[in-house]
Amino acid sequence: GSVTFEQVNYYYDTCNQKMRDKNITVRIREKDGKLMAVIKDHSAGIEHSKETRFRAESVSNMITYNGEKLYLYGELYTKRTEINICDGITLMLDYNKYLLID
Q1: Contact at 8 Å (CB) between 100 and 42?
Q2: Residue partners of 4: CB distance under 8 A and separation at least 6
């Protein structure tokens, strides 16, 4: 069998990319009609990033994180189809649109 779903990630940073410079990713993910904010701190290395999750009320053009104003700078739209090939093996096919800005 297979299943298909869509999600949109909204990415935030300061005007001068302070979060990127600190190896921190700030995003809100919209999936199944729900919003989840995710803060990923990659400073310990890509295999050991610290992730903090919490529910978001809405997607806006500006949010505040640790006293910093973060602005929406882009979106990543993903449509994923997962196909169960056999026990323990799933094929995942993604269609992506990167950094969409109105």
Answers
A1: no
A2: 79, 80, 81, 82
2, two tokens = 């297979």
Say if strands 24-31 and 62-65 run parallel, antiparallel, or are unpaired: unpaired
**pTM given for the model:** 0.82
Contact of 49 with 64, CB cutoff 8 Å = no
Please state the φ and ψ torsions of residue 55, each to the nearest 5 degrees. Answer: -70, 140
- Residue 6's nearest CA partner among 31, 41, 39, 42 is 31
Residue type at 17 in one-letter notation? Q
Write out pLDDT tens, residues 47-100. Answer: 778 889 999 999 999 999 989 999 999 999 999 999 999 988 999 999 999 876
Distance CA 67, CA 14 (A): 11
Whose tokens are 């990630």? That residue is: 9
Alpha helices per DSSP H over 1-102? 18-21
Beta bridge partners of residue 75, listed in sequence order? 10
